[in-house]
């Protein structure tokens, strides 16, 4: 079954308050992997098999180190259901239906 | 200055694995307040003055209790910059520009 | 009823990977307020009335700005039950009892 | 280098607002693995090599499913420094020293 995962990668002590170039390199990891994802203002949401997503999250966590950061705090949030398939679009649609959209 | 905030409201012990109807009622709080927000598959992202957003997050946290839940875990993530204005669209655009979109 | 809340305050772009002096100033806010709290390796856990804790979390979020940071990401996690009182010690004891301790 | 990780496992729709027995089984996974950990009121904090901790977090995430839950939301927060070793005790001591304890 697919799971939905949110990943947020935050480098510390980089001397600049901007982190968008690190985030762009993290998103590139997902582009190269070719999995469905949603870039949001507070993280990136992935959809796929849990093992694959954990491995991608692990690589996203490493991105700022290769760009010179010495400390990274990464938050990974997994949503998994075993009674039905979870997808990014399905989770949003379930809420929007209840809002009458 | 505006801040960007992510809110995720999770009721526990409701007897159903589905939470979309609670999330829809949380989103209705934001619709009624008329502030910019982005519904994602892992939470809802708000934009505005910190005090207003904290008060809206507080009301979103209370929604499942009015719908019968007895336990709620709510995660509020605040991103605030004092050197420039943060917006939902601006944060996404900053990343997309670096991806050459 | 009391709630239990975890607060994690992370300043970005400070030029140093160390954040312990910011965290210490955040903990001082709680010391001065005289509420029960547990300092952990990944955040600080508070116990009290929700309104009071949100107000303290708000002041903790502001600490790094007064110490010169220009960007702060603060995560606030609220655990509230309406069927029984939640305390820091009670939540830990409930798990330890099941571990036979 | 060791990293410090916080794991919080939340089963949804179990029909009971109490989750301590799931948390106790998650902690047992760490007991059996013999790694340093700190049980807190809002999660469990682990210390060790990132690969080992991700694998343990993966097993903790699976615990509620084996106990009958059909949906689980797990939050994993990684703190890694490449300029010095991070430990649970070291991170707490760094803050307490600044508080003059």
From TrEMBL, chains A, B, C, D:
Q: Which SUPFAM superfamilies match?
A: MTH1187/YkoF-like
Q: Name one Pfam family in it.
A: Thiamine_BP
InterPro entries, alphabetized: MTH1187/YkoF-like (IPR029756), Thiamine_BP (IPR002767), UPF0045_domain (IPR051614)
What domain of life does the UniProt record list for this protein's source? Bacteria
**Which residue ranges does the record assign to the Thiamine-binding protein domain?**
5-96
Q: One GO cellular component from the entry?
A: cytosol
Identify its protein family. Belongs to the UPF0045 family.
What's this protein's name?
A: Thiamine-binding protein domain-containing protein
């Amino acid at each position: 079954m697919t799971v939905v995962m949110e990943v947020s990668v935050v480098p510390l002590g980089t001397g600049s308050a901007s982190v968008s170039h690190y985030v762009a390199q993290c998103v590139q990891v997902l582009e190269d992997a070719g999995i469905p994802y949603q870039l949001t203002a507070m993280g990136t949401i992935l959809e796929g098999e849990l093992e694959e997503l954990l491995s991608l999250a692990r690589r996203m966590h490493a991105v700022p180190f290769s760009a010179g950061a010495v400390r990274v705090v990464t938050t990974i949030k997994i949503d998994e259901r075993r009674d039905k398939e979870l997808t990014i679009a399905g989770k949003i649609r379930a809420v929007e239906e209840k809002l009458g959209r």
